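Hi U.,

Before I forget, here's the chain from the pilot set. I'm dumping it here mostly so it's searchable later in email.
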Amino acid sequence: MQQLTKLRRLRYFTLGLFGIATIILVYGIAFGPQGQSRAAFTLEGDPAWDAGSRIESLMPPVGRDVPLFVGPSLEVGGDLGQGNVLALEVLRELASRHDAVMEDNNISQHFVDQYNWMVQRPVRGPWGMAETVRLIMNQQSPLSQQIGWDGPDFDSATKNDLTNLLTKLFSIESSEGQRPYTNFVSGLKQLPDGAWYASAFYILGIGNTETLYGPTGEYSKSPGGEKPFFELWETAIDQTYAVPMIDTGEAVHVWSFLALDSEIENEVQQTLPLVGVSFLLMIVVFIIFFRDWRDVLTAAMGLGLLMVWMFGTQAWLGYPATQISSMLPILLLALGIDFSFHTLHRWRRLVTRSTESELVRLENCWETIRQLRPALGLATVTTMIAFGTAAFSPIPDLAEWGRLAVVYILEGYLLLGVFTVVMRSGMRIGNPEPQRWLASRMYMFGGLQVRRPWPFAVTLLVITAAALVIGQPDTDFDVHDYLDSDSRMVRSIDIHHSLFDESNKGEPGTILIEAKSEGGLATFAQFEVLDKLMNEVRRRNWTYGDATVIDMVRWQMRLVASGGEGFAPTQIDTASALPMNDLELREVLKDIHARGTHDPLNPRAFVSARTVQSVAKIDPISGNISMLTLPIKIERAEDWVWMTEFEKELNDVVAQYVNSGVDIKVTPTGNSFRRFVYVNAMTESFQSSIYIAIIACFIVLLIVLRDLRLAVLTILPVVAVSIWLNAGMNLFGASLNLVTLQVASLAIGLGLDFAIHVTQGIREHRLRYPSDGLELWIRKMMGHTGVALFASGITDILGFSILMLSIMPMFTMFSKVMIAMVILSLAACLFCLPALLALFGKFELNNRHKPSAHSVGS
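Structure:
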């Protein structure tokens, strides 16, 4: 009786500790330091990424692009419509939507005026062919007189009037022989009746970064700040334009590339309910396997507390909800239930071997924890290591994912490996042997692996060799991996690619030049060197012809020489046409910083003071420059092999002219370089996570097992599974993204969980029944541990299958890969590992006795 009282108190004390921990974590959900959201796909700490951030912070651009385009609508069945975006009713509808946007002061106040070449005057707000046609017809553009337009105004025009105007516009040629209005639209052709048809054209606006998210702006640049996220402004614009254009009589629609982070956040929120679905599915599996409401109840309590603990932990740590962190609860529910299967299965087995009583149940509760500590403890540690390799990634989302996973796995072990059996020990057993049929079959299969081990071992070897030949998948940055294919953003991107030929246009990039000493960059020597560098860049056609601050200095000098306002230098270098005196150069820089400038020889060469400040950080008092940018063109930004060669070639060219070291820091950056370094970081994370997981897990195995041979044999099938997965992904065209790049290391951790139970199960039976011999040890392991592994594998598969319901493609791909991983891990650990241990484990080195007959699970 004294022993029973002691065990009761221990049980209540243990449950009380879990209750206190739960209260603390629940408090964190309500009052903890909730994580601040951040923009998706960031890589702080990388030189190219941080250089871009410094540009955005210290030399913010004049405006933020607001890109839309009108194109075909998406018909039933997924086909694109064949509507004419140049139809008069379409243009009038677009013009009315432009007016609706501009009449809303909450939206229009954040647009900037910009000079528009199509109408040769400053304009404001989203601008395309509709607004251009209206201004010209209404005699509000210099172009009206230039082309001799004398027809009716926009509201009174007929289809023939529109045809006449468009014919005039499309016949205009530039001095280079180009037809700019023709190039502005996509799919242009003239119909038999003379009317013009086009499949798409852009609608472009420029948002004011100062009023949007500047120091005194209305919005914040990143989500989760004290101010509203600026994408609310973009969403308001998009909602106005996204209304179906049914009344126009044309199958057209307005598409956009706005509010990317909001789209990602929306998809994350839609994924969270899957946690509840996963929870219910785990309960169903428990009902099928144990067929005892008491087991189901305790497992449900453990799973429920695990969900609370996970959300509370994330809140206390202050980590934001991201795409991949929203996947972790589903992942851990599937993995955590494995602990319950092993502990409850072992506890039931120990209790049913004796006459059931409360004392027997409580004693065997702690005996179960003690017996499974080597296997479950080791499996927990190795799984934590495998998941935790992501914590070393330079990608913040992955690093946080790895740290959270380590904590969640430990919480899963405590709740589902300890709490559930402690809670269960206070209740009677209803069905003593729910899976006797499966146990008998696994018992028989274990004997086959001992008697015929070579076919299993050779199969493992052959498949692994073939997988090595196939190789690993490539890394890319495809939006289809991250966003729902039916989302407005992805549909806009897909339709845009089908309509506009961007193959030879490239993408803008930047070379950031920063002064590392007090001397600054505003010296004739520095300007001369940078000017030569830009001349080489232009010679190689690595630029769009955009002006640098050096060009602006020349414009200002010509402007002053022609009678304009400003300082006139006296010492000018004839070769470069730049001021040779540093003080005079800085006076010119102060002028353009304050007033902007223009080239009197080219009326289209004009920059405002705000534009100057976006390309060079000029001190308004001294005229010195601490940083400036040189614009470049990246021709094939999505070709990672080409980008690697281009980056090397660009750095070599820069090194020929600029000595990047003590005085100057040179960094190529821009969106293209940011994507490039992000993809490289994903590839490096993929490779390093595999090596770290294998080495760290092997060391832990070696320390715990204290047997080099067993450590190698245990990890060998798991490494093979990792190789198989990589080959399979490559074979079926799956690419590496933020989620799938962790699959190889997860295969090490999760597969090793299965393998450890197999090896430890055989060792345990050898210790308990030293005279039985290898065949019976393996048979008994398969009849007991193998059944629990099979059940946990089924729950893993079902748990991961929940992610197939996610609207995020990378989760559905991850689900498929993880299901394949579990199946392969089960096959390798239950079908191949026992055969390898039978061949090379030398378990009978000191146990050479004939086997004796024992019943299953004895």
